[in-house]
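Subject — a protein and its fold

Tokens — whole-number codes for backbone shape
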Amino acid sequence: MNFGRHNHLHRRTFLADVGMGFTGLALGAMLHRESQAGTHAWSPPTGEPHSVPKAKSVIWLFMNGGVSHMESFDPKPKITEYGGKTIAETPFADTQDPKKLAIERLVVPDANGGQRNVLYPLQVGFRKHGESGIEVADWFPHIASHVDKLAVVRSMWTTDSNHGAQTQFHSGRHQNDGDFPNLGAWVHYGLGSLNDNLPQYISMGNREYWNKRDGHYLGPAHDAVPVRVDPENPLDFSQPQRPFPEDARAVGRNLIDRLNALRGVEYPDDPAMAARIASYELAFRMQRSIPEVVEFSKETAETQSLYGLDQEHSRDFGMQLLAARRLVERGVRFIQIQHGAGGAGKWDAHGGLKANHSGNALAVDQPIGGLLEDLDRRGMLDDTLVIFATEFGRTPGTQGSDGRDHHIFGFTVWMAGGGLKQGIVHGATDEIGFHAVENRHYVTDIHATILHQLGLDSRKLEIPGRKRLDIDHGNPIHEIIA
């Protein structure tokens, strides 16, 4: 190789030369293959928030399938009192103005085209907890013990009556609208990195295909990085196919550094090349950093037990939540954790609701309670937002003999930490949990609240030529912000 051309480098070329680092041997072929794809026509955000942030990280807990709001965080004893009666036979048939809320409760079909008008009694008891006295279902005792940390929003609504509502909750757009970023991708795009050795948007647990399209809109750099809680194999392609001595790997890295320097001199203003190299550098650093994060041997037995790692029913989810705390501790911005993904989702209780929800609650309740306690005692809950969400609720009426169908007209989400008020309930559904009737919120209001707490204005993140609908942005729920 002839390095003589480096003798008279101007300042920009010199910076390009020394700025390139470790990348993969496949870089040349990758650049050639991707050269036809073009580059983004806009300048990305600087990474600075638009306003003073109250939170710096998000742990997004998503229960796939549709959690019954009435048997979790929005008790409705009236459906037990009138259980077995049709809605028309109850005092609630004419209590609301159909025109005011577009309510046609006796003729609106459920997601599967049926009528779920026979009220189904509650399948679990409720008790008041904490100084706030917020009622929580008995299936969630560990979360209930932290109810004074929660901001419970009981007035959510959405429009997709089948499980494409998962896409709607993650991105604010419908499944067939095209490829729109999940909230985590927007956060990554807007704020960038707090730790250059770790990805800033991580996904744990399975994701259905409709929630894997983050990077199709903002670019692949903003897609979620899937992480497994397995120190031996936490990332796809994180280990070489066969062992290499460290001195051999060093020779390879040195050669690549020199090749990248040459390429940088030839094309000092090529953002696509710089992005590809940066991604490989991050991948190399992740190979070293992520296995340590998901190795829990240095965590005390008490901490591991707090997350339920000593119990079979809660171990898997508990490990993901303990890993989430360790990732946030190390500067990861957004961690999306899916529970029960696959097909319609584990919480999809069209039949056998009691067995379904009690079993799923047993798997997630202690780990979530442990996460809230651990973040709080470490002083991390102040700037970490925890969200418990699901795509929709379930019908007050019965499906079959012992299930509930999908329900989009009213359901519950709760949030904690990150500068939110604690121990409050915001919004309400009617007496049988059918419609959100007080302080109603579309799903993107949750997005707007999270972005607001992170100091981001979604309208300032818009890409030229790609305007979003006003409802896509949502509105922060100021009533729950401290």
